[in-house]
Amino acid sequence: MTEHRSRPPGRPPGGGGSTGGGNPWGPRRDSSPSGARPPREDARPQAPEHREAQRTPRVDDTRRGEGRPDAGRPYASRPPQARPHDPRSRQHARPYEPRARDARPYDAHGDDARHEPRHDARHEEPGDEAAHAARTHRQTELRLYGLNAVNAVFSRRPEAIRKLYLLESRIPAVQPMLKWCVAHRVGYRVAEEADLDRLAASTHHEGLVADVLREEPQTLSPWLRDLPAGPQCALWLDGVGNPHNFGAILRSAAHFGVSAVLLPKHSPLALSGAAARVAEGGAEIVPLVRLGRSDNAIAQLRSAGFTLAATLVHGGRDVFTADLPERVVYVIGAEGEGMDRDLAQACDMRISIPGSGAVESLNVAAATAVLLARWRHR
C-alpha cells in the first residue's frame, strides 16, 4: 500500500537536499552515511562476516548447508537419522480424549462392556428396581395366543386378562370379550398380521393374542383336601419337557376328565403360550399341582386312596386286560428316556400298551390319550 504525504510548507518542490539526488524533501533519516551519528552505547556489536563459513560443523548437525556431514548428498543416499528426543513433548502433549465410538463404558475389571446387552436381567445390579419389576412381570404374566386358549381364560377368570391384540377380522367373534374390556378399562389394540406374528412368536395365533396373569400351580396337600370322593385319575409327568407334548397331554386330560397334572419338585416344566395353544383351552380346565419330595408325595397319594401305575414301553401288564383301580395316578416318563428307575420301582403296578411292534412305541402324548381312554371306560 502506497502512503501519500502532503508537502511541508516552505519546502521547494525540487532539489534542496544536502545530499542532492532526486528526493525533493532531503535525505531519508536512515540514509545518512556511516559515522554521521555516534553509535548507541547499548548497540550490539556487528557480527563478523562469513561467520557461517568459519564455524566448525558438528558431527551430529542435521541441518542442511555447506560444511555439514550430509551437505550435498541426495536424500536417497543418506542414512536414516533418528529425531532427537524432546523431554518436554510429554509435558505439553494433548491429553487423550476418546472418540465418540470409543466413549463406551468399561467395567471395573477392565473388560470391554461395549458388547453387553442394553438390558438383561441376568446382568442387573442388586437394587435395580426396574429390572426386578420386568423380571417379576415375566414371572407373573403369560402371553397366550389362539382363539380357544384365550376364550378359556375369559370364560373362567376374565379378571386375569391384562391386554388384548387382535386382527380386525376377529372383532365379531370376540365382541363379548371386547365389551368386558371396555367396561373394566382393559386395553385392547387392533393390529396387523405381522404384528401378531411378532407378539406371539408364532404364526398360529389365529388372529388373537392376550397377556394374562399366570396361575401358579397348587401344592399337593390342599389339592387332596379339596378333592371330591369317588373315582379320580391324575397324571404324574416325570421328565416330559416338550411344550407341544405338554399341551397335547393337557388337551387329552381335559377331554377325559383328569383331576390334575402332577409336576415333580425340580421339573422345569411350566405352562407356556405354545403349550396353552396346543391344549386348546385344556390348560384352564386341568389344574397343575407342584409336588414336594417324591417319597412324601407317594405316601400322601396312597393315603388318599390312589394307586400309582408306572407306564412302561415293555414289561408291564396289558393295560386293556389289567384291572384298573377307581383312583389311579399314571406315572409317565419322558419320551425316549423313560421314567426314573427308582420312581418306577416305587409304584404299585406296571402297565404297557401292546402294539404291532412295527415301531418301538407311541408318542408320549398319544400314549397318554390311550391310557386315559382305557381308565375312562374301565
TrEMBL record:
<keyword id="KW-0808">Transferase</keyword>
<keyword id="KW-0489">Methyltransferase</keyword>
<feature type="compositionally biased region" description="Basic and acidic residues">
    <location>
        <begin position="38"/>
        <end position="71"/>
    </location>
</feature>
<dbReference type="GO" id="GO:0003723">
    <property type="term" value="F:RNA binding"/>
</dbReference>
<dbReference type="InterPro" id="IPR004441">
    <property type="entry name" value="rRNA_MeTrfase_TrmH"/>
</dbReference>
<dbReference type="Pfam" id="PF00588">
    <property type="entry name" value="SpoU_methylase"/>
</dbReference>
<dbReference type="GO" id="GO:0008173">
    <property type="term" value="F:RNA methyltransferase activity"/>
</dbReference>
<dbReference type="InterPro" id="IPR001537">
    <property type="entry name" value="SpoU_MeTrfase"/>
</dbReference>
<dbReference type="GO" id="GO:0032259">
    <property type="term" value="P:methylation"/>
</dbReference>
<dbReference type="InterPro" id="IPR029028">
    <property type="entry name" value="Alpha/beta_knot_MTases"/>
</dbReference>
<dbReference type="InterPro" id="IPR029064">
    <property type="entry name" value="Ribosomal_eL30-like_sf"/>
</dbReference>
<feature type="compositionally biased region" description="Basic and acidic residues">
    <location>
        <begin position="83"/>
        <end position="132"/>
    </location>
</feature>
<dbReference type="InterPro" id="IPR029026">
    <property type="entry name" value="tRNA_m1G_MTases_N"/>
</dbReference>
<feature type="compositionally biased region" description="Gly residues">
    <location>
        <begin position="13"/>
        <end position="24"/>
    </location>
</feature>
<feature type="region of interest" description="Disordered">
    <location>
        <begin position="1"/>
        <end position="137"/>
    </location>
</feature>
<protein>
    <submittedName>
        <fullName>RNA methyltransferase</fullName>
    </submittedName>
</protein>
<dbReference type="GO" id="GO:0005829">
    <property type="term" value="C:cytosol"/>
</dbReference>
<feature type="domain" description="RNA 2-O ribose methyltransferase substrate binding">
    <location>
        <begin position="143"/>
        <end position="218"/>
    </location>
</feature>
<dbReference type="Pfam" id="PF08032">
    <property type="entry name" value="SpoU_sub_bind"/>
</dbReference>
<dbReference type="GO" id="GO:0006396">
    <property type="term" value="P:RNA processing"/>
</dbReference>
<dbReference type="InterPro" id="IPR013123">
    <property type="entry name" value="SpoU_subst-bd"/>
</dbReference>
